[in-house]
Specification:
Layout (H helix, E strand, L loop, with lengths): L3 E5 L11 H10 L4 E8 L12 H15 L5 E9 L5 H10 L4 E5 L2 E2 L2 E2 L11 H18 L4 E2 L5 H9 L4 H18 L2 E5 L10 H13 L5 E4 L12 H10 L16
Parallel strand pairs: 1-2, 2-3, 3-4, 4-7, 7-8, 8-9
Antiparallel strand pairs: 5-6
Helix pairs in contact: 1-2, 4-6, 6-7
Length: about 260
């Protein structure tokens, strides 16, 4: 059985805790067959420490392919671009200079705030914040060059801590344009495992969003861990598989059949 995880951070990200080799070793122990090591690339002022030395990164990945490929692990190169539609020239230059197997597009910043910071909701209706977040994501899906949208629900973590889980019917007008833009451009949607067991949770909303994606003519949904430690690789995958089935998907998508491997 193909088991994948296309969103993993190594020590080439400042918040990653394990080397690529340690990641590959744990991925094999977890039964993974295909992974991508996708370190952060940010251009936002104050986040420019998140710019890897890609010469060292690609050298480490080449060594991992030599060591772990014979054991049955496909190791894909990758990068997670923060708000790439707002830094189009920089993102285009990076992708022209480097050949990545997997490119992730993420919204990490909204109106000057990191989306993990609940203060982005200060003095605002939560659904106004959600609408602004998904409008930015729709622009990213239309205008930036990448393969999959990461953690589309991450804004709900901060929002739920203040206001409780979001209601799907109130999100639908803001979310459907994102999904339509993604489907039009062949973008894959990530179901991120990090908060699938969070309490209070929003899994009902995730199922609704994935159902809307199917209606939009989806390009597939992948289940990723967004791991920053080897112990997090593959986290909550079983929960994610059950949610995918509830939304009408037979199985997670596989990126390795969509990219050209070296």
């Amino acid at each position: 059985m193909i088991r994948t995880d296309y969103h993993i951070h190594s020590t080439h990200s400042p918040d990653g805790h394990n080397t690529p080799a340690e990641i590959c070793r744990q991925a094999l122990a977890q039964g993974m067959t295909e992974i991508a090591i996708t370190d952060h690339m940010e251009w936002k002022p104050g986040a420019r420490h998140m710019q890897p030395d890609f010469d060292r990164y690609f050298a480490d990945l080449a060594a991992c392919r030599d060591e772990f490929g014979p054991a049955g692990l496909t190791v894909l190169s990758g990068v997670e671009l923060g708000n790439p539609h707002e830094y189009a020239a920089e993102a285009d230059a990076l992708l022209a200079a480097r050949s990545f197997d997997v490119v992730i597009g993420s919204i990490h910043w909204l109106d000057g705030w990191n989306i993990h910071d609940a203060r982005c909701f200060d003095g605002r209706d939560p659904y106004a914040v959600y609408t602004a977040y998904f409008a930015s994501m729709a622009a990213m899906a239309r205008d930036a060059d990448f393969d999959l949208v990461a953690h589309f629900d991450r804004i709900f973590w901060a929002g739920s801590s203040r206001h409780g889980p979001p209601r799907p019917e109130r999100l639908e007008p803001a979310v459907r344009p994102v999904l339509e833009a993604m489907a039009d451009r062949g973008r894959v949607l990530e179901l991120n495992g990090r908060f699938l067991t969070h309490d209070p949770g929003w899994n009902d909303t995730l199922v609704a969003v994935m159902g809307w994606f199917r209606e939009a003519g989806d390009a597939g949904v992948v289940i990723n861990s967004d791991a920053h430690r080897v112990s997090e690789i593959g986290r909550n995958r079983e929960v994610g598989v059950a949610l995918l089935a509830e939304a009408g998907f037979e199985e997670p998508a596989r990126l390795g059949v969509l990219v050209t491997l070296p």
